[in-house]
From TrEMBL:
Entry keyword Acyltransferase: no
The entry's keywords: ATP-binding, Cytoplasm, Fatty acid metabolism, Ligase, Lipid metabolism, Nucleotide-binding
Primary location class: cytoplasm
UniProt subcellular location: Cytoplasm
Occurrences of domain AMP-dependent synthetase/ligase (ranges): 40-189
Domain of life of the source: Eukaryota
Family named by the database record: Belongs to the ATP-dependent AMP-binding enzyme family. Bubblegum subfamily.
The keyword Cytoplasm is annotated on this UniProt entry: yes
One GO cellular component, as annotated: endoplasmic reticulum
Pfam families to which the protein is assigned, alphabetical: AMP-binding, AMP-binding_C_3
Source organism per UniProt: Alligator mississippiensis
Protein name according to UniProt: Long-chain-fatty-acid--CoA ligase ACSBG2
């Protein structure tokens, strides 16, 4: 990690970090100098102990992250929306010596669990003034001043002692399926920089939920825009999103079934080192040869292209012992019925498949919670059907004939293209509200918590299977 900061020697005035219009640009030389000054050993940081960073995106966040790595510690980012208990668990698990927080609200979370953190030696707050002075709690300015008193030779010695295969950062899983696990990543990036120069990538990557929400926002914004803007959006949509990736020497499909579908495995220097302090979980994720079991279901076409079609843990196994990947069916329904926001296939241990659906609605800009009011896209779709509904509750209370008929027709279209009758969705139910992080149905990274949803709507699901 320290190597990229050497760019300050050759390109001292090059932009290393942009901080918005008001804060301006931090040059390579300035960033390198700042990172040199934040010697965390002055606060008692030991090698391979954590430095947890709790706050929103900011220059201080980036500087603390780089500084932790340069000092031989483990940089650990924590979601700013995490509860005090979640913050405490991560800080304890990585044996954090230092915690960096954004403001008094985030500081309060750490103070609530401080007694559970035996390795904690210092807390640094980089925004707002401290509400009260506490032992070993520093402002950002106080922390920077401590670093300026340390000779450069001490930092150089620490950097020289680091190896490419040393762990330098931890990324904790969202905990969607259980306790968060610390994913260990080393300094080793292989030939990333030369590869980027050669390939010059033009693709952006994100989980599907992010793209879906961006599309909804664009549609809502441009539905009332002039014709030229709408045409521009339609042109941009033609670029498309790719749901597959090309042949890679570092990946394989392990023991494919008769349909060519099985678990996707990866191998290479991009694969993580293991889970911190969790040997059993590491052995479950990595085989003896170092292949990562991704947990993704994938298939391969005759041209060698591989497609991810779902998760092994999400497989629906019916009462007839048929294994069904839910994602292709769920996505097909959403394409046929564009007012559907989320679709969850149900059928584990059941005689047939059913589906839970949510409608697209507006979202509270402050809390992120879904509102009862339908989205502009949904209302336009309803009007074209002849429905006057403007709220989800109206659709449910009247079982709006036009809306329910449109959904049923979409489901029937999907069933006609199904691999077999066992893949047919025979019943479905519309839920009273969409899923969200605030509601607990989505994790911090917008991953759907299927078990949470299935548990919350168990009665509704049972109703689909009553004779």
């Amino acid at each position: 990690m320290p190597a990229p900061l050497g760019a300050s020697i050759h390109h001292p005035l090059a932009a290393a970090m942009c901080c918005g219009a008001q804060s301006g640009v931090v040059t390579s030389m300035s960033l390198g100098g700042i990172c040199d000054e934040i010697l965390l050993q002055t606060l008692g940081l030991e090698r391979f102990h954590g430095v947890t960073i709790l706050g929103s995106n900011s220059p201080e966040w980036v500087i603390a992250d780089i500084g932790a790595i340069m000092a031989g510690g483990l940089a650990v980012g924590v979601y700013s929306t995490s509860s005090p208990e979640a913050c405490g668990y991560i800080a304890a698990n990585c044996e954090a010596n230092v915690v960096v927080v954004e403001d008094n609200a985030q500081l309060s979370k750490i103070l609530q669990v401080q007694k559970q953190l035996p390795h904690l030696k210092a807390i640094i707050q980089y925004r707002d003034s401290l509400e009260e002075k506490r032992p070993n709690v520093y402002t950002w300015e106080e922390f920077m001043e401590l670093g300026r008193t340390v000779p450069d030779s001490q930092l150089d010695s620490i950097i020289r002692s680091q190896c490419v295969n040393h762990c330098c950062t931890l990324i904790y899983t969202s905990g969607t399926t259980g306790t968060p696990k610390g994913v260990m990543l080393s300094h080793n990036n292989g030939s990333l920089l030369p590869t980027l120069k050669e390939v010059r990538p033009t693709f952006l990557f994100a989980v599907p939920h992010v793209w879906e929400k961006m599309e909804e926002k664009l549609k809502a914004t441009f539905s009332q825009s002039p014709l030229v803007k709408r045409k521009l959006v339609e042109w941009a949509r033609g670029i498309g999103l790719q749901a597959s990736y090309s042949r890679l020497d570092g990946s394989r499909i392990k023991q494919p079934d008769v349909e060519g579908t099985s678990e996707l495995c990866c191998w290479g220097c991009h694969v993580f080192m293991g889970y911190l302090g969790m040997e059993a979980a590491t052995q479950e994720a990595l085989d003896k040869a170092g292949w990562l079991r991704t947990g993704d279901l994938a298939c391969c076409d005759p041209d060698g292209f591989r497609y991810i079609v779902g998760k092994i843990k999400e497989l629906v196994i019916t009462a007839g012992r048929k294994n069904i990947a839910p994602v292709p069916i769920e996505e097909a329904v959403k394409r046929e019925v564009p007012i559907i926001s989320n679709a969850i296939l149900v059928g584990d241990g059941r005689k047939f498949l059913s589906m839970l659906l949510t409608l697209k609605c507006k979202v509270d800009p402050e809390s992120g919670a879904p509102l009862d009011e339908l989205s502009p896209e949904a209302m336009q779709f309803f009007q074209e059907l002849g429905s006057q509904a403007t709220r989800v509750s109206e659709v449910l209370s009247t079982r709006d004939p036009a809306v329910y008929q449109a959904i049923q027709q979409g489901v029937e279209q999907v069933n006609q293209r199904a691999l077999s009758r066992t893949h047919h969705v025979q019943k479905w139910a519309v839920l009273p509200r969409d899923f969200s992080i605030a509601g607990g149905e989505l994790g911090p990274t917008a991953k759907l918590k299927c078990r949470v949803v299935l548990g919350a709507y168990e009665t509704r699901i049972s109703g689909c299977y009553q004779d």
